Amino acid sequence: MSANLAKEVGISVSEVCPMLFMVIEHFKNRDATAIYKRYSEKGRMAPEGLRYIDSWVEPNFDRCFQLMECDDRALFEQWTSHWNDLADFEIVEVITSAEARARAS
Question: Would you identify the CATH topology of the domain 18-104?
Fold first, then answer.
């Protein structure tokens, strides 16, 4: 069920959608080259069930912010194990602004 359909039928988005996470990836030594090289060679290496949505990178290559979703937070441990020699990770569960507004009302 899509988030828009959930709204139409009066169901909370969080009831039907996987959890959202903002992954803050701190490039070690601001070395984005090593990250992109591995990505080019091996792909994202995310386990089944962990879905990448979009990402943004600071111009100084200090951090990358990735929006991801999954039903099982433990999948992040499997995924980050492929990258933790090149980056440190902060994984924060987030909700959409619409969901925050609905919860606050």
Answer: Alpha-Beta Plaits (3.30.70)
Name the residue type at position 75: L
* Domain layout of the chain by residue ranges: 18-104
pLDDT, tens digit, 9 for 90 and up, residues 27-69: 999 999 999 999 999 999 999 999 999 999 999 999 999 999 9
Q: What distance in Å separates the CA atoms of residue 63 and residue 49, rounded to the nearest whole number?
A: 24
Q: Which residues of 65-97 are buried (b: 16+ CB within 10 A; e: fewer)?
A: ebebebeeeebbeebbeebeebbebebeeebee
Burial class (CB in 10 A: 0-12, 13-18, 19+), 21: buried
Q: How far is CA 30 from CA 27, 86, 90, 100, in A?
A: 5, 9, 16, 33
